[in-house]
Amino acid sequence: RKEVEQDPGPFNVPEGATVAFNCTYSNSASQSFFWYRQDCRKEPKLLMSVYSSGNEDGRFTAQLNRASQYISLLIRDSKLSDSATYLCVVTRSGNTPLVFGKGTRLSVIA
Amino acid sequence: DAGVTQSPTHLIKTRGQQVTLRCSPISGHKSVSWYQQVLGQGPQFIFQYYEKEERGRGNFPDRFSARQFPNYSSELNVNALLLGDSALYLCASSLWLGPTGTDSPLHFGNGTRLTVT
To answer: Is B106 part of the contact surface with chain A (CB cutoff 8 Å)?
Structure first.
């Protein structure tokens, strides 16, 4: 079983739609959680960190459920510019490397 | 300020050859990590260096090696190239050792796309 598993994509949604991505992780020692965004043929960029209390950044909301070892990302009012691959990322501690999921591709259609 | 810079951007090699990839971190960043991203997969950790010392190594064969220089730039070397080494090689830098969320996020370079034929 992979350490980080994500919903298989691609997700094709119309502009204005709400879309949710899910991710599970297998290592209960994981401590830090992130969502990264990667545009086609570009480098990954940090979208947001994920906290147990949940956090929101504009149209983006991230949630963490430690008991279920589950992370989610909700995008409201999707824009064409949201089209990208969204990578779920975990790390066991501040000194250990990032472990990336396979990524879920989102296409927002006009 | 310049971001993480990697060179070359693209490279084509044949099986059995050796390759050296280069990375310059963001000014002031002392930690450099290397990741391999095969098409359709997420990046996979290869090495992490901090203050010129290796601080972590992923599950890659000994054909892969790296080093960090006094100016914190880094090189990744791959010997005896295989077809399966074809990938995007990403270098990332951060202020401190390991990512700590928004306090010390990883900043990735544009990557070097290696094709082995």
So the answer is: yes
Task: Name the token pair of A27.
Answer: 């290592």
pLDDT tens figures, B57-67: 999 999 999 99
Cβ(B31)–Cβ(B96) under 8 Å? yes
CB-based contact B43 A94, cutoff 8 Å: no
Residues 6+ apart with CB under 8 A from A14: A78, A108, A109, A110
Read off the pLDDT band of B101 (50, 70, 90).
low
Q: Which residues in chain A have their CB less than 8 angstroms from residue B41's CB?
A: 102-103
Helix (H, G, I), strand (E, B) or coil at A80: helix
Nearest residue of B to residue A35 by CA position?
Answer: B101
Q: Residue B21's closest CA among B2, B36, B1, B31?
A: B36
